[in-house]
Amino acid sequence: MADISSNFLGIRSPNPFWLASAPPTDKKINVLRAFEAGWGGVVWKTLGSQVKNVSSRYSAVDYHGSRVMGFNNIELISDRPLELNLREIAECVRLFPDRAMIVSLMADNTKEQWHELIQKVEDTGAHGFELNFGCPHGMTERGMGAAVGQDPEIARMVVEWVMEKATIPVITKLTPNVHSVVPTGKAAVEAGTHALSLINTIQSVTGIDLDTLVPNPNVAGKSVFGGYCGPAVKPIALKMLTTISQDPVTSRVPISGIGGISTWKDAVEFMLLGSANVQVCTAAMKHGFRIVEDMCEGLNNWMDEKGFATLNDFIGKSVEKITHWEDLDINYHIVANINQDKCIHCGLCYIACEDTSHQSINLDYGKPYNTYTIKEEECVGCNLCKLVCPVADCITMVEERKGAEYLNWKEFQKRGLPLNDH
Amino acid sequence: MSITNNRLTPSAYEQNFSDIHPPFETRDAALVEANRCLFCYDAPCMKSCPTGIDVPKFIKQITTDNIRGSAHTILSANIMGGGCSKVCPVEKLCEGACVYNLMDEEAIPIAKLQRYSTEKAIAQKWKLFERKPGNGKKVAVVGAGPAGLSCAHGLAREGTEVTIYEKESKGGGLMTYGIAAYKVTPEFCQEELDYIISIGGISVIYKQELGKDITLDTLCKEYDAVYLGFGVGLARQLSIPGEHLDGVVDAIRFIYDIRTNAYAQVSVGDKVAVIGMGMTAIDAATQARRLGAKEVTLVYRRTEEEMPCTEEELSIAKQDGCGITWLASPKEIIGVNGKATQLICNRMQLGEPDAGGRRSPVDTGETITLEVDMVIKAAGQMPFETLANNDHLANNNGKLLISDQCATNIKGVFAGGDCVNGGKEVVDAVQAGKDGAKAILRYLQLTT
Questions:
Q1: A350 to chain B: nearest residue by CA?
Q2: Pairwise CA distance, residues A370 & A119, whole Å
Q3: Do B218 and B245 share a structural domain?
Q4: Rounded to a whole number, what is the distance in Å from the CA of B61 to chain A's nearest CA?
Q5: Which positions in chain A touch B99 (Cβ < 8 Å)?
């Protein structure tokens, strides 16, 4: 059995799965249920100035019969009294001392307000802070949340205020609503943050009710941009994570990965791209806390299969595998192959290739079943047919190198080699 | 043993004849199945539909809440797409070809989804087709069955004035009179007919039988063209001793009685033998059971390998408790006091394959005896050969001969459906009607 326990900045948890700062972590009853279900830690929903929430608050994007492919919220930071939150945090820490208790903070923009909030939270016995520089709605209009994270210099200043006061680890959470997460990440690291976490939600409009013409979520006939999350944002989060993992400054600190993580597989992917642990929200909001069981078991089984004894054995292993385009090997060439024994004659590969790719698939008419074969000389190895095929391993990509040596674009140009003629 | 009616309680009749393929109860239920559809290209299901309904498209339209578009996709290819969704033997057509079969997964319930869209269109009387302005041409259609209705709709859409002559008092043909009641009700058939003719330009005159109340000569004189879609209908006789005895009926008549009377009024025996193994035989056997017959036995000359009905149909008969005697060919019906009491069959074995490749049954010389009080003959239907000959219509044993333009040997007279093919599925007749309409429009120089 692999050891899936996690040590993030000295904060220990029995597994690397934390619940992200969000509605599931805004009060004792939820957090205790989460710990009972087996979650390794929580980031308590953001504490700060007083707010009032509206109704409704969430909307979602469904896809092809599947609910909540993407999720959107316009909820603000915790709307409960600060003293109540602090009391409950202390109780949760006392009841589950082996779990990580991080508290998310978003104070008004003065040093004094930050210091006061930090002191109060430290008194609860919490293990660390997460600075909310990412909330994309409601708080930004008041100069908080993403308004801080979008300006590296403001972020640097706030982190410096926090670091003057905090005696427990500090994680700075980054907003994805920027052209690059690196400048703010760098500023936070240079200002002394102990770790980074990303991504927060992405500004979005999830859809419009075609009867009322009101976008979702509907608040008395109006809507606002919300924060998008859930499985749909995972690829964007992974890309942003990679830029942080590859930057010489930001990669100096540990990263807590966030963004559409629903399964152990998603978590492993984040960790392979440099996350030391991960945070989950939408998947729990859709299915409840019980999903952590398979996350732990699946991770453990995969690690055993791959021979990884601890998390550190594989964290970051894929970071160097994402490179610059001009370093890719042009001589590498693959060609599609259709296994006729597995083919169900749905024609999806054919029409995708014929209409939108390189016309590399033959159709031999049959009634009712056509036969589809690859025109190997035409195939550019784009993967499209394989991606749309509904049968596992029916279409495989076979390696047929154009040349034995590694050849990249810079070298290709230098040698004046010919372009494609199709 | 006796042949009697009123064997069951009203609720038992209702239950026995309720819809065997109930519709989706909710939109969510339909969406679960619709979303499973892979949206195949040049889809095998579409190619296996005699009317070529674009199945992936109409299912996709269900998933996008475009039910009106979905119904239009179905009905523009098959104006009886509602009825076909209930009576088509989809297991050997669209659903049989679904690519999920090749993954050993359940096929998409295409018929049920088709019903989902078309039922809404028919119930809510959606106006999906616009009739073109009148073109001044008049066409007579003989028979308000699937072929005739489909032809009439195709003609009316183009602005032609159509008069349908129907010998029965209701339209729908075998949909109304010749199919098991648990598949489709006469009420639905009426609604479907009303929906089809609601496009305008179609009038139906009932109780008008060709050769009796109307003549082909007159129709040819009064109309610019004539379409014959009068189907088949004469039950094939067994030509064995005892066929005249009381209790010996033909399946067409038996099913007709069920379709035109209250269930409690239809008589059935205690011990019933049904001769044949086609769809009509199954419909007769299952309904005999559902009317309260104690024992029903299907008698067939060959084996399960050669049977004309589908596996699905056979399993309905088995689930209804019908027995099956394979390799038995009726030899004689014995009667007492003029009433059938025994069916004697020759025990057969399979011999060499015949010209069609089916192995022919050969008499073994042994016989078996079934105790019966009712024998239902479902050994196939015969075309109206005398009618064809009287009107000098070229035919092959009664089946009308037509050109690739659906034309008979008489100028201006076209034909299609069962009266040409000898008896196929409803969906084949609908396609024949479509082809007929197209050919007539070309003949009338309304299209090229």
A1: B41
A2: 72
A3: no
A4: 12
A5: 344-346
- For residue A363, list chain B residues with Cβ-Cβ distance below 8 A: 42
**What CA–CA distance (Å, rounded) separates B236 from B239?**
9
- Under DSSP, the state recorded for A140 is G
* Residue A134 shares a structural domain with residue A252: yes
pLDDT digits (tens, 9 = 90+) for B273-300: 999 999 999 999 999 999 999 999 999 9
Helix (H, G, I), strand (E, B) or coil at B213: coil
**Nearest-CA neighbor of A11 among A89, A123, A102?**
A102
Looking at the fold, whether A208 and A353 belong to one and the same domain comes out as no
- Chain B's closest residue to A355, CA to CA, is B41
d(CA B335, CA A189): 104
Distance CA A90, CA A100 (A): 12
In 3D space, the residue among B341, B348, B344 whose CA is nearest the CA of residue B332 turns out to be B344
Contact B41 A345 (CB under 8 A): no
Using CB atoms, which residue from A344, A350, A390 is nearest to B41?
A350
Chain B residue nearest residue A394, CA to CA = B103
Per-residue pLDDT of B236-257, as tens digits, reads: 899 999 999 999 999 999 999 9
Give yes or no for residue B14 having a pLDDT over 90: yes
Predicted TM-score (pTM) of the model is 0.94
Residue B418 lies in a domain: yes
Helix (H, G, I), strand (E, B) or coil at A149: helix
Determine which of A64, A346, A350, A365 to mutate to test the interface with B (most B C-beta atoms within 10 Å).
A346
pLDDT, one tens digit per residue, over A171-195 is 999 999 999 999 999 999 999 999 9
Mean pLDDT of B10-15: 95
Q: How many CB atoms lie within 10 A of CB B203?
A: 12
pLDDT of residue A422: 67
Rounded mean pLDDT for each run of 10 residues along chain A, 422 residues in total: 97 98 97 98 94 95 95 95 97 98 93 96 98 77 78 94 98 96 98 98 96 97 96 98 98 98 98 98 98 98 98 98 96 98 98 97 98 97 98 97 95 90 68
Range of the domain at A309: 6-321
On whether both B41 and B108 belong to a single domain, the answer is: yes
Please count the structural domains in chain B: 3
| Claim to verify: residue B433 and residue B347 sit in the same structural domain | no
Dihedral over Cα of A255, A260, A264, A266: its sign: negative
The pLDDT score that the predictor gives to residue B421 is 97
Q: Last residue of some domain: B359, B380, B401? A: B380
Other beta carbons within 10 Å of A251: 18
Nearest CA in chain A to B94: A368
Tally of domains in chain A: 2
Whether residues A344 and B35 touch (CB distance < 8 A) is answered with no
Q: Which residues, in sequence order, are CB contacts of A285 under 8 Å at separation 6+?
A: A22, A23, A24, A71
Considering only CB atoms, which chain B residues are within 8 Å of A351? 41
- A302 and A401 in a single domain? The answer is no
**Mean pLDDT calculated for residue range B49-66:** 98
For residue A251, what is the domain's CATH number?
3.20.20.70
C-alpha–C-alpha distance, residues B307 and A179, integer Å: 70
Contact between B244 and B335 (Cβ < 8 Å): no
Pair (B177, B249) in one structural domain: no
ipTM: 0.92
Residue B300 C-alpha from the chain's centroid: 21
Are both B241 and B335 inside the same structural domain?
Answer: yes
* B chain contacts of residue A344, beta-carbon cutoff 8 Å: 99-100, 102-103
**B334 and B341 Cβ atoms separated by less than 8 Å:** yes
Q: B423 and B332, same structural domain?
A: no
What number of C-beta contacts closer than 8 Å exist between A and B?
43
Query: Do the beta carbons of residue B373 and residue B355 sit within 8 Å?
Result: no
CATH code at A360? 3.30.70.20
Query: Helical H runs in B279-425?
Result: 279-290, 311-319, 385-390, 418-421
